[in-house]
Amino acid sequence: MLFIQSNSLALSLDEGGRLRLLEALAARGFEPLVRSARREVFRALGGEASAAELERLCAARAGASGKGAYTPGELFAGGDCLLSLVFEAEGETAAGVVYDLDTAAPLARLERFCRDVQDALGSMRAEENVAVQSSESQAVLPLWRPRSRTAQQGLARFTAIQPEEFVRAAAALRGGKELARASELLEGHAVRDFLKRIEELRREGYTPRRMLAEAGAQGGVSVERLVEAGLLEREIRVSCRKHGHALFDLPSPDSLAAVTISRAKCSLCAAPVADEVVEETFSPSRLAVALLADGGWLAHRVYRIVRSLGVPESDISTGPPTPHGESFLAADVSGSSFIFVSRDGDLTPAFARRAAEIVEETEATHLVAVVTGAAEDEGRLRLYEFAWRRARGGHDLDTTVVEGLDRARGEFERAFARAARRELSRALFPLDAALGFPAAAFALEWFRVTKSNAGRDSLSKLSA
Question: Could you report the per-residue pLDDT of 208-235, keeping only the tens digit for each?
Fold first, then answer.
């Protein structure tokens, strides 16, 4: 899965300045891929001595014809990432990094690349008077700035409509290990059913033996694991020895000691509490009740999957659960605005309508609906009808429906891959003519080949 980040510089160079900049970058270790391929062709035609002259003539001819720049930009291999430099028609220069989950410090690499480009431009100005058209003073080079993205605007709109108190609390809680482990266990349908059943049995006063038998009936749910994860709490139950009815539950043996010392008696048989039946029992914790009540466990699992796919926390915002049990998450992924709508239940027409409303409000370009139940045909149809209406209005909406968390990661990856391809095409399309084929396809293939070669090298080292 690929990501792209870019910065822009309010500066434009003529053809001669662009070629000199590429030469200055090559001297700093940035070998231009497109220019190197062209120079190989020129060498094959006229030898090393004629390559520079052929390049100059081709650049002059492109400028005279007005059909497009000879040097619209460049690509540079950065080991485990691709760096790009695009000279845009609007008088700006864009520098970007294309990276995946295995790339080390991609944003730092982009910043270093921008500094190298800035230094190269500074050295060019010091050596000769480069023809530069800029809104800034000719004496000082403009500064790089992050490129504004529509997705960030959508993320800001989503965050703005959330309660401020919830935003602060969610940011503090969602990184907690206890919450992550509890949500992961609740992914199992048997665990959720067991906790709900335990709460019912507890209210009805059934014995602890019945509760433990229920764990076995629910597919071998581990009570100890639930206690360790904070989903179950141990309690002390006091029952009437004569009638068998539960009298009360206590949080700890110390509480029981306090009751017996007080010489309390059974309300049914008048026997001292110390003489009644005392057993260890269990009850769902407040964390379990909260996560099950509004589907919070599912919202947290969606958040963890999105984070595990490489989306930084700064590009994610969550909203509180609705009275209908739905939760919302917004994310900026490769310059595309995503809305994730999750529900512990079925995809119904009403759920589809509410999902469409949040997309309209945030103007997201990707909608991912996650349900633990089934996607009803009418509910699915309403989502696709909504996407079709948006497309008719000029706003495409990529829609993904996920039934069950076991498929969520794969579906998220595919949705992110589509967004990355779209953003790559938008950012690198000026290089298509220079390459002779889509630059986005080249970037995707470069990463595929690079990963394949890295895998073969690792196998060779292991076999050696």
Answer: 566 666 666 666 678 788 888 888 887 7
Which residue in 279, 264, 191 sits closest to 232, CA to CA?
191
- Give per-residue burial for 317-333: e unless 16+ CB within 10 Å, then b: bbbbbbeebbbbbbbbb
Within 10 Å of residue 129's Cβ, how many Cβ atoms?
Answer: 8
| Per-residue pLDDT band at 409 (split at 50, 70, 90) | very high
pLDDT band at 199; cut points 50, 70, 90: confident
pLDDT by residue (tens digit) across 244-277? 666 567 666 666 666 767 677 776 676 776 666 6
User: What residue ranges in 14-92 does DSSP mark as E strands?
Assistant: 73-77, 82-87
Tell me, yes or no, if the pTM score tops 0.70. Answer: yes
Question: Nearest CA to 133 among 8, 14, 21?
Answer: 14
Q: Are 413 and 306 in contact (CB under 8 A)?
A: no
* Residue 116, phi then psi, degrees to nearest 5: -65, -40
Beta bridge partners of 94: 8, 86
- Domain coordinates of the chain in residue numbers? 2-147, 153-178+294-426, 182-291
Could you give the angle at which helices 150-160 and 349-362 cross, rounded to 10 degrees? 110
CATH of 2-147, one of 3.40.50.300, 3.30.240.20, 3.30.420.480, 3.30.310.50: 3.30.310.50
